[in-house]
Amino acid sequence: MNSHAAGGFLDGRVDQHARLVGDGSMVRDGSIDPSFSGDHEGVHAGLGAGGRLGIRSVIGWGLRFGSTLVLLPIRGLRSLRRSMTGASVTLLLIGIVSLNIVWGYPWSGIFAATVTMLVAGWIINRWMRPQLRIGFSLPSAVPVGQSFPVAMHLRNVRRFPAMDLSVHFESPSAGRRRVNPPVFESSQHRESLSMIRPYQRRDVAVSMTGNRRGVHRLPAVMVESMFPFHLFRSTQRSPVATEIAITPQLLSADEDPIARGLLDALGGWSHRLLAGDALDYTGSREYQVGMPVRRWDFTSWARLGRPIVREFQSPSIQMVTIIIDTGRTNADRGATTGTRKSKRSRLPWSRNHLDQQVDRPLERMLSLAAVAVESLCQRQVRVRLYATSESLDSFASPRSLSMVAQNEPLLIQLASAKRIGSVVAAKRVQEVVEQLGRSPILCLTTRPHDDASLDLPPHVTMIRVDDVPAHDDVAAETSPSDPLVRASDSIGQAR
């Protein structure tokens, strides 16, 4: 290596009087530059590392390529086995039988025909694989356990028709272990379509049921094509981004004595809140389906020829705030993950284990809150709702301040509620109460009666929702420690 090459490669400059000595230092005009030794070693080290990295990348690429070549036939056979139908299996058996018979006419023709049909059917099935754009029409919210219609809009975006189709929502595999029950269940397993012409749309109606509260995405849509002649099956999975809110189920008095007591406590609070308030006439509007009617405006109805209703509102109660305390307590943990004596009940796929995943106190509290929202909205009272799982900024947002007497946005808000820490929840409840002043407030909580972490002013009504197993023999018996009495006793300060 000459001095010109060394200087140009290592230094980027040309030095005719530079040379390397044995220890790796550079000599310039008779003087030794010891600082060059480290740079020289670093360059050689970098070259060595780069060479090792290059070798490793080549080895890794070779291993990946080899594994792909080895696994490609296996993946192809598995894909072929999944796509085969009863017709293709029958043709395959005929071809195998024709090979085991003495070769000659007509068995050679049968074998050739079966092979040709199998190959041509597989190629045509892959070539005619449909490409669909899927849209949905469904309600924005629905209670738990209630069926709701879903309309799938299938549009063929190819220049070729989509034929022999089967469309359905993806269902959880029966062979897999599932810790939680399925969120959705469909009453119709498959919908068969003979053909969708190019750039045309077909609608498919499906009935579904939501099993778990929350805001969930719809399951993926599975599109299967068995063209031609149902020889092979091509399956495409289309993920769905459409969401629906599964709201809490309304608490019913027929469930158990505790539910009846909670509803009585809520009814007493509502009666005390609105008792003696004369309703003011706010105006008339055209009747719409589902609108609560307090009084018909027959004069306007006769003049306009359309049903007109009169609207009233309480002058003193302009807005009511409902606070949902979702703080997690020790009692809630026990109710959610209770132990079972049976070993079978502790299996991840057993029904008892699935039942343990449901937070019963939280669900009962949200069901009671849904009843309160429905009742107040029917009386044309504006309701603000705050769940402690939300941030305080969301409560102070303009959308929350301008809430009208509509129950659906509030029920969707209840669907999103979840458990948080007990200390954080208590702090958020107290901050919201301080912001509201002395306006009517109803606080629902699952904290036990002896929990002093949530200290609220006297004008705030608190209803404690306990989840105690109900028995028929104690339906008519109550004691001071009974949650029914505790809930009723907390109604004294409603305003």
TrEMBL record:
<keyword id="KW-1133">Transmembrane helix</keyword>
<protein>
    <submittedName>
        <fullName>Uncharacterized protein</fullName>
    </submittedName>
</protein>
<keyword id="KW-0812">Transmembrane</keyword>
<feature type="region of interest" description="Disordered">
    <location>
        <begin position="473"/>
        <end position="495"/>
    </location>
</feature>
<keyword id="KW-0472">Membrane</keyword>
<feature type="transmembrane region" description="Helical">
    <location>
        <begin position="84"/>
        <end position="103"/>
    </location>
</feature>
<feature type="transmembrane region" description="Helical">
    <location>
        <begin position="109"/>
        <end position="128"/>
    </location>
</feature>
